[in-house]
Design a protein that fits this description.
The chain is an alpha/beta fold. Helices cover 20% and strands 23% of the residues. The protein has six helices and 15 strands. It has a seven-stranded mixed sheet, covered by helices on one side. The chain has a six-stranded mixed sheet with strand order 9-10-11-12-13-14, covered by helices on one side. The termini are far apart.
């Protein structure tokens, strides 16, 4: 059942996506975690929003339940140049407020199925297709990459259609965004191809939390487990890893505590940029 956000909130979305002052001469490279998968990435002069979820705590007809408020609402979102949407089928990646926001975003990149379900304001991308996002402040090449929303070898059909992204370009720190991918193998294959065609991955934003629901695949993990995320970090060897999608919903079976333990076990704990507390902006510049 589709729900609309109040008129005041919708007006706030319009204002939030409006013009803002130009960025400084040296582009920032920052990450701000809002809650769940929802994250703002400032890179090469652009501000990019991942998987918008701005509803207050809510129980959805799907059985998913949001358990925590976002760090802030759309009225504090600021300028957004593009939205990267891993998929639209599940409330924890696109909720009611997020759907309203997409209608006003200047660029929305997602899956081909998302375009057919949401409308022409969404650009559907197949794996390894690329699009440039350009403004007067900068430009970033966005490449859609494979993601598997469940265990290796399982095809969930339309319900499991999901994408990850890689950001690149001249002067752009190459950034891998896993989306709701549960497969270490798939992430590793993405990393191998990116290294050959673009170069080393600078930053990986990994959707973790080992999301599970009894109604799907016998409660199998639908996003990376903590151990899986640590293996991805070790195989891809990025300079930094930002783990998200571990809080604010009733589907997570693991959290940041278990993730840190797993990273320590693999000897990659030094790569973690802890996004907590939600709403704070973390600087991703600097060398390891």
């Amino acid at each position: 059942m589709k729900r609309s956000i109040p008129l005041a909130a919708a007006t706030a979305v319009v204002a939030a996506l409006g013009a803002q002052p130009a960025s400084a001469a040296t582009p920032a490279f920052t990450v701000t975690h809002v809650g769940g998968p929802t994250t703002i990435l400032e890179i090469a002069g652009l501000r990019i929003l991942l998987d918008p979820t701005f509803d207050e705590p809510t129980a959805y007809p799907s059985g998913l339940e949001k358990t925590r408020s976002p760090a802030f609402g759309v009225e504090r979102l600021g300028r957004i140049d593009a939205v990267l949407l891993s998929h639209d089928q599940h409330d924890d990646n696109l909720d009611n407020s997020g759907r309203e926001l997409l209608k006003r975003a200047p660029v929305v990149l997602s899956t081909p199925g998302a375009r057919s379900r949401l409308g022409d304001h969404v650009t559907g991308m197949k794996s390894w297709q690329s699009r440039w996002v350009k403004t007067g402040r900068g430009s970033v090449k966005v490449t859609a990459v494979p993601a598997l929303h469940g265990p290796d070898g399982v095809d969930r059909g339309e319900d499991g259609e999901v994408t990850g992204f890689v950001l690149s370009g001249r002067g752009v720190p190459t950034t891998y965004i896993s989306g709701d991918n549960a497969s270490v193998k798939v992430a590793g294959e993405v990393g191998d191809r990116v290294r050959k065609t673009i170069g080393r991955i600078d930053t990986a934003i990994l959707f973790a939390g080992a999301a599970r629901t009894p109604a799907i695949l016998g409660n199998a993990p639908l996003t990376l487990t903590s151990a899986g995320a640590a293996l991805v970090a070790k195989r891809l060897d990025p300079r930094r890893v930002v783990p998200v999608h571990t809080d604010s919903w009733n589907i997570y079976s693991e959290d940041m505590t278990s993730l840190v333990k797993a990273f320590k076990k693999q000897g990659v704990a030094g790569k973690i940029v802890d996004p907590r507390p939600a709403g704070t902006t973390k600087n991703l510049k600097g060398n390891r």
